[in-house]
Amino acid sequence: MIKKKLKPIVVISLFLFSWGKLNAQQDFFMSQSFVNPSMINPSLTAIQDGPEFGLFNRYQWLGSESTPNTQQLIFSTTYNKPAYLKSAYKGGALRRGKKRSKGGLFHVFNASIINDRAGAFSKLETRFHWSPQVRIGKDIYAGLGPVVSFSRFQLDPERLSFKDGTDVAWGQIQKSGLTNSSANISFCGNVHSQNFYFGAAFLDALNQSWNRADSSGLLVDRNLIINGSYRYNINQLFSVSAAGVTRFTFGSPIDHSISFRGIYNNLVWLGFGYRSSKAMNISFGAHINQRFNIVYTAEKNFLGVTGVGLTHEFYLAYILPTRKGSKF
To answer: Is residue 227 within 8 Å of residue 215, measured between CB atoms?
Structure first.
């Protein structure tokens, strides 16, 4: 039964991956996706037990200065989750909810604003996601839904390597302007339970361009991102987890990331990660008063590129108080 229900999700993901020619230009890839996977797959908001506000900052050392080249503000929540139905809260609205639903369906909502500045290319993007999550087995749910995004692209002429008055591409860019605005759509889905999740996201399905000169070839990446995680509880105090992310982009090498974490009493954890682009990271996280998640990650690249140093990532989230119990 589970295999039959998962088959359409797999078929749709493979179809989207094979649709059209992908052109690698720019996208950011965050090790923080191990901490909040909804940053790259909004449907994985489903693993949360309550509404959450999150703020992400990424600092990369470039040359003689360190600048925050990526920020992401996220709000994510769910509606009519099984946790709501199992809550000890005795309000009238909850009792009416019990009559309407048996816990076989709940909804996921995710909204985020992303400010991404990488070299000569900058992007300000707003994303909105909704997906239904359907129970496909005992304590196992699956969902698939769209992500609608609105973006504004900006090219910095001072940092374009081909800025030459005789260069054809530069002439096209100058003629069409250094800014562009457009809308796009993505698709993402997941399968999750109490100790694991698996997600697939096809990002930016439409063929966007960084500027209005389509012939310049400055196209926005289309990516298929697959991520998953499994957590094993050793005893009541200690647990370990492993998480992996793979990104497929035509015209670029496949990017793999894997991370391992040790967790103490669901309060603090220490993690180590490796990326196939020859980078390693170490991360530390804390869950404070069941309301705040604080995470710091430092990553070192070993490609030998001059002027590239440590990358620092910070994530702070506030979990809104609710009267809901555990989902499972």
So the answer is: no
Among 205, 206, 273, smallest CA distance to 244 is for 273
Tell whether the model's pLDDT for residue 29 goes beyond 60: no
Are 161 and 193 within 8 A, CB to CB? Answer: no
Distance CA 229, CA 297 (A): 18
Burial of 187 by CB count in 10 Å (0-12 exposed, 13-18 middle, 19+ buried)?
Answer: buried
102-119: pLDDT as tens digits: 568 899 999 999 888 766
Of 318, 320, 321, 322, residue with least CA distance to 54: 318
Question: pLDDT digit string (tens) for 266-296?
Answer: 899 999 998 887 788 899 999 888 889 999 9
**Encoding tokens for residue 261?**
């974490």
285, 269 Cβ separation under 8 angstroms: yes
**Residue in the structure block whose two tokens are 């796009």:** 184
- CB contact set of 72 (below 8 Å; sequence gap of 6+): 39, 54, 55, 56, 112, 113, 114, 115
Q: Residue 32: what pLDDT?
A: 59
Return the bridge partners of 153, or none. Answer: 123, 180
What's the CA gap between 42 and 40, in Å, rounded? 6
Return d(Cα 241, Cα 120) in angstroms, integer: 37
- 261-to-57, 111, 274 alpha-carbon distances in Å: 21, 28, 12
Query: Rounded to two decimals, what is the model's pTM?
Result: 0.74
Name, in order, each residue with C-beta under 8 angstroms of 65's C-beta and a sequence gap of 6 or more: none
Q: Is the pLDDT of residue 321 over 70?
A: yes
Statement: residue 89 has pLDDT above 70: no
Contacts of 25 (CB under 8 A, 6+ apart): 121, 210, 218, 219, 220, 221
| Dist CA 1 CA 6 (whole Å) | 9
Q: Pinpoint the alpha helices (H) of 32-161.
A: 82-86, 92-100
